[in-house]
Amino acid sequence: MKDATFLVTAADDESAVLQDVTDSQVHTLSTNPGVEVGETVVATIEPEPPMEVVWQVVEITDQRTIPVERSPEPPTQQTREIAADQPVGEITRQERAGEGELHVITVPDGEADDAAEDVLDDAETLARAARLGVDRVEIRADGQALSVRYLP
Q1: Three-class SS string for 89-128?
Q2: Which residues in the chain are classed under CATH 2.40.50?
Q3: Domain 2-65 carries which CATH code?
Q4: Structure pTM?
Q5: Which of 121, 103, 99, 113 minimizes the C-alpha distance to 144?
Q6: What average pLDDT does this structure show over 108-136?
Q7: In the chain, which segments carry CATH 3.30.1360?
Q8: Where is this region: Disordered (predicted)?
Q9: What is the rounded distance in angstroms from the CA atom of residue 51 to the CA atom of residue 5?
Q10: Residue 77, SS3 per DSSP
Q11: Are 149 and 68 in contact (CB under 8 A)?
Q12: Could you say which architecture CATH assigns to the domain 68-151?
């Protein structure tokens, strides 16, 4: 048996695939318990006998969608200062007061919009949000600064 938080990476009417957001292990379910791609579930799963190559859900204690959105707002002054002080390609992670994290990435000038789209499309953004236990993700980009705000 395994208790974990999972990201649903594939789902159809008959089965689903869950990725553990902590250890990245992938578990194929023999049936779909009513989950959709992109959802986060906190569940207990167990291998299905006799071969134990697929899994079944014992219990789902939480099931939700974490919105990941591009904000029309530019990065904050603090974000711009952090981005200006680090080389292109570097990331700074800061805990937020209360819950969540702020990630500041310095990108080549003029590539902030493309980088923001990459973050929007990256399943790891959702997995990280689920690991952090946040309710939403906000992405801001302008110039060389890209901020990913994991928010309560």
Answers
A1: CCEEEEECCCCCEEEEEECCCCCHHHHHHHHHHCHHHHHH
A2: 2-65
A3: 2.40.50
A4: 0.90
A5: 113
A6: 95
A7: 68-151
A8: 67-100
A9: 24
A10: helix
A11: no
A12: 2-Layer Sandwich (3.30)
